[in-house]
């Protein structure tokens, strides 16, 4: 029998070699093992050979490991074909009266090694193709959230025996649309393994079945992947290397998507800055400038409160137009004082994410404030508020800085333009309008209205006031009378300094009867509220669509009526005699 089996060895060896050379790469190690068992039984039927893996070994696990089998003789009919490093083994037995040919166990060992090697090569090729396709897929995505979703999907498909968990840092929280855990630096929720991997960028094993893998790109680590075999699926080095390749590919794709998003954001920010600057430089009034700026701030940052403060040379604050109603309330003073204090300490801005720790639980959760500086001088500041904590990102803060920096010059120009316009159309002493401005308003009213009343006012015995009390007191009397006029006329009525001690009032679109009542009120109020007490005399004229008077005629008639009031004893009003009763 021994001679018979020896004679079969060359044919068996040739048949094994032919199988290894001809077999498809898709033929698994298990299939090769079945073929080998069948071939042994064909060539050596008298031996009743049995070739089985040890009970603790699994074919799929063997295929993932670097194993090298060699035959160990136990006795003439029992060999152990074993890998001494991993302990993986096969039991080769024959009938009790049989004897293995001397070369047969070694031939079987060589066949197993070659089949295993081909299996590993095939699996590696398949994985590499998968990883290449995954990499292509990752890099085709321009959305960070989609990259992470595809990463998890790919891992679950490629490694079905493992569970995967994702840890994402707080600054990537826009990607928490995927199943992920935020990386905590401290506290009960902190995962020390995930944190170590995030900070070091290196793979870290927790045990034989669990490891933490960094998701990193060229510029940093963006998250951590935890692979868990759930206790019964060992995480081999081969598995770990493949998972790491996939995680690195996803990390680079995530980074590219992030850079793409940042570039889009930068372009949008530049467009916003350019559009805002263009709009603000359109020679707008201060009110229009600030209202436009407030709308843009609220829309761009989703702010609930917007405030603009001007600080003059005396460190007095003025709430500028465009500010929301909250800043007119006394409870906003704590926020104003906090910002002002920090800016005067030299801070370039104020950025508060947890506002409730500063202003209390009832206060606003997020705050951004940026100074308005021109020629190294603090002109004021802009502030945005939101109830939600950590609602503003640092990128938003930098954009806010850029917008206010570009807007400051336009705001300053609008303030100067408004101030110059105010000086041109306003009398500096009384803060009433100038005579030129009054003439313009009357002429405009004659074009769009149906009627109007003109009142000429003269302070009685004003020369005696100057002679008795001095010119400074005379100026104070003018200011007091002007104040009475301003407090007794409507917003769209016009009070003006006519010249010297003469003042004027124009009431658009009212009848002479209404004009008379208002004038009577002025005469009475001046006598009661001036100190030293003075009186006024008033002349009234009017126009309507029937009379078709010119501005010159209107003024002349009021002047004549004033002269009549003076001759009649002063401290009274007179309506021009041409006006029908």
From TrEMBL:
Gene3D superfamilies reported in the protein's UniProt record: 3.30.450.40, 3.30.70.270
UniProt key word Transport: no
Entry-linked PROSITE patterns: GGDEF
Top-rank EC class of the record's enzyme: transferase
Coiled-coil zones: none
PANTHER family: DIGUANYLATE CYCLASE DGCM-RELATED, REGULATORY COMPONENTS OF SENSORY TRANSDUCTION SYSTEM
NCBIfam families, alphabetized: GGDEF
Protein name, as recorded: Diguanylate cyclase
Organism: Bacillus mojavensis
